[in-house]
Design goal:
Number of strands: 5
Helix content: 40-55%
Order of helices and strands: HEHEHHHHHHHEHEHE
Number of helices: 11
Strand order of the largest sheet: 3-4-5
CATH class of the largest domain: Alpha Beta
Distance between the termini: 48 Å
Largest sheet: 3 strands, mixed
Structural class: mainly alpha
CATH architecture of the largest domain: 2-Layer Sandwich
Radius of gyration: 23 Å
Number of domains: 2
Amino acid sequence: MAGEAVSKAQLEAGTCLRALGMSLSGGDTPKSQEEIVAAIKTQYPGLAQTSFVCGDTRGSLATALPSGFWISQRALKVYFDHADNLVSSPHDVTFVEKAMFSHFGIDDRNGLLPFLYSGFDKSRIAGLCKELARGAIEKGDALCCSVFCEAGKLLAMHILAVANKIDKLLLSQTGGLHVVCVGSVFKSWQALQPGFEAVMKERGPGLGICEVSLLTLQTSAAVGAAALGAQAAECPLPMDYSTYAQTFYTAKFS
């Protein structure tokens, strides 16, 4: 990848980079970061003068539950518990049942078992979330709305869980606390919003979070990694952070 970057920059092959920044899975701890940097210096001594490694989670809701998979799995759990007479659902399960049959191309609930066990496919299960979102937003299906509401509550709880670690400056900026949200599930924000707001209104102010802005990322983690690499090499890049994300929701809680 570094060689490709050199080529795109129209530099000579073998050019030693001033700084190399990498946002990598597994690069979240100081020990792993040191090991990766040491390996690069040993195996590719002429690659870069300075190397910097960080994790790729971006500190966002990208790594937080609930995801599309969580929402789909939750709806299926409610459906199966109801169908098995284990826990009766307070909401009608007809829409979820029809959506499940259609999405997986099955005729009865037993047909879903291969998708959950021998032929487990997380992305296939997560794909059901799109139809569940339609059920919540377009059809007003009570069970779909309930699952998305629960998901919205969990999203809020993830923010509140780190409230005591948030720098006060981040809470006092325009728009309050900025949270970058990554994932297709946020296309269904309308369905997540009621649960999110219920928890934030109840607990947010007491923990010092009175305003929140949710943003979608407009660039990749590579931009941040490059900036951090340049910073480590004491040659910071000009960065306009306002162009890297777009706000899709802002609210005050009291």
